[in-house]
Amino acid sequence: MMAQYLALREEAGDCLLFYRMGDFFELFFEDAQKAAAILDISLTSRGEHAGAPIPMCGVPVHSAEGYLARLIRAGCRVAIAEQTESPAEAKKRGGSKALVARDIVRFVTAGTLTEEALLEPRRANVLAAVCELRGSIGLAACDISTGRMELEECAADQVSAALARVGASELVVPEVWEGTPDGAIGRPSRDFASETGEASLKAIHGVGTLDGFGMFSRAMLAAAGGLIAYLDHVGRGKLPLLLPPEVRSSGTALAMDEATRASLEILQSSQGGRKGSLIDAVDRCVTGAGARQLADDLSAPLTDRIAIAERLELVAWLYEDALLREDLRGALRALPDIGRALGRVVAGRGSPRDLGQLRDGLSGGRRLHERLGRKGELPALLARLMPAMAGHGALVDLFSRALVSAPPTERGQGGYIAEGYDASLDELRKTAGNARRAIAALEAKYRDETGVAALKIKHNNVLGYFVEVPQRHADKLLLPESGFTHRQTMAGAMRFNALALHEEASRIAEAGAHSLAAEEAHFEELIGTAVAARNAIAATAAALARIDVAAGQAERAAESGWSRPDIVEEPCLEIEGGRHPVVEAALAAQRERFVANDCRLSPQDRLWLIGGPNMGGKSTFLRQNALIVLLAQAGGFVPAQAAKIGLVDRLFSRVGASDNLARGRSTFMVEMVETAAILAQATERSFVILDEVGRGTSTYDGLALAWAVAEAVHETNRCRCLFATHYHELARLAETCDALSLHHVRAREWKGELVLLHELGEGPADRSYGLAVARLAGVPAKVVSRAKAVLDKLEKGRAQTGGLAAGLGDLPLFAAAEAAREEACDTLRERLKDVDVDALSPREALELLYELKRETAAD
Ligand SMILES: Nc1ncnc2c1ncn2[C@@H]1O[C@H](COP(=O)(O)OP(=O)(O)OP(=O)(O)O)[C@@H](O)[C@H]1O
ipTM beyond 0.90? Predict the structure, then answer.
């Protein structure tokens, strides 16, 4: 056995090996130690290997899913080695000592789950593959629980943004690749070949050309190749459901990088959970598929005005008709998750219950179609979805006739094929039923004949049917002419067989075996029908999910008076009475009121500098506007009285000096790297929020950087921008930057107490309230009064010298400074041209920076 185990162990690679032994999956050696620690189960030992006891632990097969889920969540991957023959077959093959053959039947990994118990209903589970081909990056992503697949090509510096959008739970890359992101799994480079990718896709979808699905680049196909090869590997040759791939072209989605996603807390709060995130505050979907679609929409809002308008039109239609909305939501709520049921069916792990779910979901779709069909003219998006809900008449009819109303998850016991579907199966069931009745009659007869009132006919898996009497009445049945044969003596009871009983029992067993086989054959046929219709079923699932999203968005809007945004081309951002959905909900829970605020950016007034006290609501204001843009371009209503939004191509959100130590960069470094990305990428169509950029370093450096960044955003990027800052000195920028204006969050000191109004006012902040906030926060009065003394002194000094910003008025304008600097930089430019950035390690890059800095200082 050890040799077999070790061979399988080798094959399992870095996965834990679940080794099937009877009713248990056993783990040995280091696997056992690791799993026992994660699962908190006892670690035992068995036999010896190389002179030491072998550590072992095990989990029962019937409850293995729960254990698997915990291991996967802890970051493990698991290889399942099943017995591929019965002990009887092994004996026949190799004698009484023969070892049962085992083989790894599949690998269970975070990105390749289909089991209902292992998946979260409201979250997609994505597996992604990334590779590089001639300088550009191919990305393939799929959710095998529903079969959705997407291909994308992007530039090397966009890969982390693309991956952040996809949110994969598992990522595979070529094993020799410098760009390997953390935690990615290396796979043979030959898997990532565009020809094999193309050939696999053609084979899966039975087409001679992929043109019908879209235009795929070589890099996309190479990534698809890597993805499919990995799926083939983990499924041991059995591929899961894969729908025709969709191209995601860059530019069709609002671009957001990883830092922006994290800081806007779109799908996850900064604490890591869904609670406190945007989606948590917005999601009113009544189905898991709807919630997954909404997450997708919020991760990749649109940039196409017509597509946004179509989604908004549907939300508005459902918003206005509350009755219809309630009706639809009620109907959708009752529908099973057909996308995921289909995923299990195609993956070969479907159960009779999954088929029942397909029947119920598809017939529910047909009913909705009928209901909506009576509504007259429909919004364009809905009209396009209608045909996808209508079909499947034959399939629904077949499944309705074939299956019982609530089919079981296990098919081993049969009983899921409905009566009346197959006459011969009904006949077999009748025979078994008759025999069961005959056995009940036999019990009465035997009692009569023997005079033993306590006689019973029982059944167990070892003996089958038998007659049991208490020990003291056994004598009568032991008589040779009694017609009973002794089978077993128990404490206090004796068990017997009888010819008539045996005959009836055989009849039951035979009919049972035949009917099980008949049901099994029907099951396979029904599975085949579902598999053949997989693309159409997936389209129905997608249509239902889209309707659920729209109805949920309408519901959310109706709940709190959200409004339909007006999406326009000109780069403005006019939000009237805007609110932050998450902060508002948190305040409402404490019975506090959220103060709505306006935002009015236009090409003539596109950069707002916002000052005011800590805790005054600056960050909240910045984010609420970014979230409103995001929600609007995702095609939903927004938390505002009115909103006119000029289409945004890229959205950036930066918070000064947030901790990112996990990545090994100092906080200030992170802040600057992220700011650099904005300055490099923001266009005139972008919207940027900068929250106290520069605060991560000394006051002078911070002010200088904040000043320069604000100027660059104003002069060079020319994007819409909200810039929150503590530096009063920045107010002087308003003198030179004509599209920049000053604003502040208002506060009052009343009877020595600070009152934060959370209201945005025009003009610069009148003063700092740092000390008042410190008092509010419970800093001891003594410390606050000492700080006050220091502040008075500093302020006196400032009055004399002109303060931090003294002399800044003489600074040449940003554009003029640029021109002067360009001349001086020629030598630097030359040197930089020669640098191969990809070939530099971070350390070398830093050294080079120092060197260049030294050179400029010497100029
Ligand atoms: N518009 C608002 N209406 C009501 N309460 C608000 C509003 N905006 C913010 N708040 C409350 O004030 C708290 C602080 O807000 P926020 O973090 O936006 O302030 P800030 O000015 O950015 O502070 P800091 O400068 O310390 O980062 C929020 O958690 C919320 O409870």
Answer: yes
599 lines ligand 1 (CB under 6 A): no
Examine the domain organization and report whether 100 and 127 are in the same domain: no
Structural domain contains residue 399: no
* Residue 618 annotated as binding site: yes
Domain with 698, as residue range(s), is: 562-766
Residues 127 and 230 both lie in one domain = yes
pLDDT of residue 660: 41
Residue 526 domain flag: no
> Is 817 inside any structural domain?
no
613 annotated as belonging to a binding site for a ligand: yes
At 58-67, the pLDDT tens digits run 999 988 888 9
Cβ–ligand 1 contact at 620 (below 6 Å): yes
Question: What are residue 100's phi and psi, to 5 degrees?
Answer: -65, 135
pLDDT value, residue 799: 66
DSSP string covering 578-601: E--HHHHHHHHHTT-PPPPEEEEE
Beta bridge pairs of residue 173: 186
Half-sphere exposure of 322 (CA within 13 A, CB side): 5
The amino acid present at 157, given as its one-letter code, is: D
CA 763/CA 182 separation, integer angstroms? 46
- Best residue for ligand 1 mutational test, from 614, 620, 744, 760 (most atoms within 8 Å of Cβ): 620
Same domain, 35 and 90: yes
785 C-alpha to ligand 1 centroid (Å): 25
Residue 51 Cα distances to 47, 48, 322, angstroms? 9, 6, 74
Could you tell me if the CB of 625 is within 6 A of ligand 1?
Answer: no
DSSP string of 127-155?
EEEEEEETTEEEEEEEETTTTEEEEEEEE
Mean pLDDT of 751-761: 80
Residue 616, annotated as binding a ligand:
yes
- Ligand 1 lined by 595 (C-beta under 6 Å): yes
Edge-to-edge strands of the sheet including 44-49?
44-49, 52-60, 24-28, 16-21, 78-83, 102-108
For residue range 767-821, list pLDDT tens digits in order. Answer: 667 777 777 777 777 887 787 788 788 777 776 666 666 666 666 666 666 666 6
Which tens digits make up the pLDDT trace of 152-203? 999 888 888 889 899 899 999 998 887 777 788 989 999 999 999 999 999 9
CB 149 within 8 A of CB 242: yes
CB-ligand 1 contact for 624 (6 Å cutoff): no
20 lines ligand 1 (CB under 6 A): no
Low-confidence winner among 314-323, 571-580, 724-733 (lowest mean pLDDT): 724-733
Confirm whether residue 751 is marked as ligand binding: no
Does the annotation flag 407 for ligand binding?
no
617 in contact with ligand 1, CB cutoff 6 A = yes
DSSP sequence for 292-358? HHHHHHHHS-B--HHHHHHHHHHHHHHHH-HHHHHHHHHHHHT---HHHHHHHHHTT---HHHHHHH
Q: Which of 64, 85, 108 is the last residue of a domain?
A: 108
Claim to verify: residue 142 and residue 93 sit in the same structural domain: no
614 known ligand binder: yes
Ligand 1: centre distance to CA 614 (Å)? 8
HEC profile of 252-273: CECECCHHHHHHHCCCCCCCCC
Residue 757 confidence (pLDDT) above 90: no
Q: What is the pTM of this model?
A: 0.83
**How far, in Å, CA of 471 to CA of 103, rounded?**
48
Q: Is the CB of 581 under 6 A from ligand 1?
A: no
Show the DSSP H helices in 155-249 as ranges.
Answer: 159-166, 194-205, 218-234
Q: Is 615 annotated as a binding residue?
A: yes
d(CA 752, CA 852) in angstroms, rounded, equals 52
User: From CA 695, how far away is CA 267, in angstroms rounded?
Assistant: 27
Q: For residue 618, report the distance from its CA to the centre of ligand 1, in Å.
A: 6
In a domain, 524, yes or no: no
The answer to whether the CB of 616 is under 6 A from ligand 1 is yes
> Ligand 1 test: best mutation among 264, 728, 758, 759, most atoms within 8 Å of CB?
758
